[in-house]
Amino acid sequence: MPAQNRKAYLRLTIIVAIAAIAGAALFEMPASPVTASPGPVPEPTRTRRRAVRVARPARYSQFPHSAKAHRLECNTCHKFPSPNWKQVRSEADAFPDITDYPRHENCVGCHKQQFFKGSPPAVCSICHTNPGPRNSARWPFPNPREIFDKSAKGRAAESDFAVTFPHDKHIEIVAAANRHSDTFIYAAFTREEGEESCVVCHKTMVPQGDSEDEYVTKPPANIGDAFWLKKGMFKSAPIGHTTCFTCHNTETGVMPDGQSCATCHQLRSAQPRPDFDPKLWARTGVADKVMLDAWRTRQSAGAFRHEFASHAELACSTCHNVLTMNTADPSTRKVSIAACAMCHATATSDDGGALNYEIDERKANPAFQCVKCHITFGKQPVPESHIKAIRDAAGK
Question: Lowest-pLDDT range, 89-98, 315-324, 345-354?
Fold first, then answer.
């Protein structure tokens, strides 16, 4: 081999050796002093790398707040107030609020790889309607809900959060405010004493009133005893910050204020199964998202109608334990069968109790479906609590 070629070969051998040593050093080096493991670092074999890739999420088109890496302080990504807070609501109704998505720098720190993967990158679709260099249009931010719910994304969205609202701390405030303003109604728990403070926030949704049309949408011609959504089924509730920020804001100093997100917004825990049929909801053709949310969280009698004459005459506290109710805790929202049994369980079936009738029918025919109160629960075995309510009504 000529001397010149031998020198070139020697240089190439030295370069390869240095690269190999450097590569080995990189594999042995921890990612950073903060994340370094005190024990030996396993050899990064091909099999191990493949296992890591399989374990990673396959899609990035959603942002689950419940993911461990996402459980950060809210103000890490959401800055109060958003730059567009004066534009999303009319000038007369605008107030400082978080009304826009986080900026790119909040995302790219962890998801730089996903930002440049795919055409378009899946991660961009979380905020953008049609991701691309020529289109920066974004979905409406989930707040205000009045705008978000009308979008294609909003109609299908389910929040990662439950809002905790302690009713006991607010009833007295509403009652006190009534002494100085006609805006609020005095808190009471029987109709004889006056209307409840509950009606300040909770109104009958799509009331039938004096109309002869009792259904929200036209039912099938052969509806029979099958359920179809009727008017006056649900009560409304505040769905955004407008009502809350009337008192809770930096000017009044009433805490929590608009920057204390985590005080009210808590990650949603496992929810009990509701008495709700999503296929039935789709057939009704009802587009009201607030009504949908109210129905698919009903864990008692899914067919209960607030506007029904006998129900409308009752105080809210007849069925709801208002003083212990916390909206983030499903167990405190559940209506006890004892509340229903006051009217619908009688000593004997001949006395007209609806609960008596349906249990008798189930005893005679195990395939019988209870439909007077339930939508999906009526197919299940009769709970012991229902049978006990009949015994209690009979004094046994």
Answer: 315-324
